[in-house]
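Take a sample.
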Amino acid sequence: MRLLGWSPDIFWAATPEDVAMALSAFAADAPDSAAMARNKLQHLQELFPDG
């Protein structure tokens, strides 16, 4: 997670799904279905709002 700039607090607060999604970005053969669904993005925006 160091490659993503995650602090220990962020790492330990992450769900297994969060970690899997983050790691899938590094998979050379990641399928198109690995793209984040709009509802997942909206959920993350609610959890971590900008400013």
In short: Residues 2-47 form one domain.
